[in-house]
Amino acid sequence: MSIDPLEYYRPEEWGKFIAFAAKHETPFLMVNLDIVRKNFEELRELFPFAKIYYAVKANPAVEVLELLRDLGSCFDVASVYELDKLLSIGVSPDRMSYGNTIKKSRDIAYFYEKGVRMYVNDNIDDLRNIAREAPGSKVFFRILTEGAETADWPLSRKFGCHPDMVYELIGEAKRLGLEPYGASFHVGSQQRDIGAWDSAIAKMRYLFDGAEEQGVKLKMINMGGGFPANYISKTSPRELYASEITRYLSEDFGDEHPEIILEPGRSLVAEAGVMVTEVVMVSQKSFHSLDKWVYIDAGKFNGLIETWDEALRYPIYCDRIGEDSEDFIIAGPTCDSQDIMYEYFRNPLPMNIRAGDRLFWLTTGAYTSSYCSVDFNGFPPLKTYIIK
Ligand SMILES: Cc1ncc(COP(=O)(O)O)c(C=O)c1O
Predict the structure, then answer these.
(1) Are residues 98 and 202 in the same domain?
(2) Could you identify the atom of ligand 1 that is nearest to the CA of residue 99?
(3) Which of 76, 143, 145 to mutate to test the pocket of ligand 1 (most atoms within 8 A of CB)?
(4) Out of 75, 131, 270, 293, which could bridge 229 as a Cys pair, Cβ 3.0 to 4.6 Å?
(5) What region does 298 belong to: left with phi over 0, alpha with psi -120 to 50, or beta?
């Protein structure tokens, strides 16, 4: 069964994408700011008690950042480059947190000089660097979480540390003159199991109690991202995520829970984006092979890297309509054998698909344009067009 774009977009939204796409040469990404706005407002309604720190890395287009700035969002910042970009559009440093656990000493100093006073931490060397370069700042401690198996794009293992280690870091932060402010987790991006938040919040309770034993009252929980967007494999509705997560919070912390921060990326921008690509070639590798290959003009290195291990399954719509469909292997244009998006997850495309046909990749507003190579095989980074 081919994809019906109207299962993903309202007719007027889809109409806008199609009309805009017809006038531009592929490959490119279109981002509809109205959908970003709708997602932001919806999240704010679902979590009225939370502060939203948009994870800039998901889609750092200036227009997206300006919109979120005007809607009152704060920002989770991963590098000095993201920081400079936000400063250049007038976001004040008290609306930012340096949310990357991996940071150079001199980058911490730069953030501090620019006025940022909130830093994530998960290890002692980094904590000492923060104490030296950003004296007196607020620090929140990231814990390891479960949930890797049920997230499409897991983020555990590399970030965070065991709560027992956080316990030590809290005491050390206090001794170093920092303000141990809170704790954070990220249950993995596109997390399908809402229960992943339950166990993470329970760990927060354990940590808050442990901190109090050391005379430290933590004030904030940063629940990261992980909220879903609409891809091929469906998730529960976001309303259910919100009501369950709110229930977990009140079970562990009562109604007077600490300040809550969310760091959404994917759930705000993914659905706002549609990537348009063109078929370069269709082929078979032998006369009797059952596999048919479709090569298109953008691949893993031009915005579709989250198809790595076929992790994210984008809905793909082909503009050749009215014909029977068949499964195809879909690959990118570079001379790299890794540049195959889907080999095992088969995509129904029109049987007679041919060079020049267009494939529309729905729900591609997150982690596409920001994830491109700049010159691999000479291909330039993916162009982003903003649709208002
Ligand atoms: C620290 C941090 N916060 C938030 C996010 C955004 O997560 P998501 O896109 O799942 O909302 C990420 C994603 O990598 C992250 O690293």
Answers:
(1) yes
(2) 1
(3) 76
(4) 270
(5) beta
Written as six digits, the tokens of 44 are 């704010």
Residue nearest to atom 7 of ligand 1 (CA): 225
The encoded tokens of residue 130 equal 């923060």
Could you report the per-residue pLDDT of 134-186, keeping only the tens digit for each? 999 999 999 999 877 899 998 878 999 999 999 999 999 999 999 999 999 99
Same domain, 120 and 168: yes
Give the confidence band of 202 by pLDDT, cuts at 50, 70, 90. very high
Domain count, the chain: 2
Residue 189 Cβ inside 6 Å of ligand 1? The answer reads: yes
267: buried, middle or exposed (CB in 10 Å: 19+, 13-18, 0-12)?
buried
8 Å CB contact between 289 and 329: no
Q: Is residue 53 situated within a structural domain?
A: no
Task: Give me the residue label for tokens 């990749």.
Answer: 361
Which atom, in ligand 1's list, is nearest to the CA of 268? 11
User: Which of 155, 184, 223 to mutate for ligand 1's pocket (most ligand atoms within 8 Å of CB)?
Assistant: 155
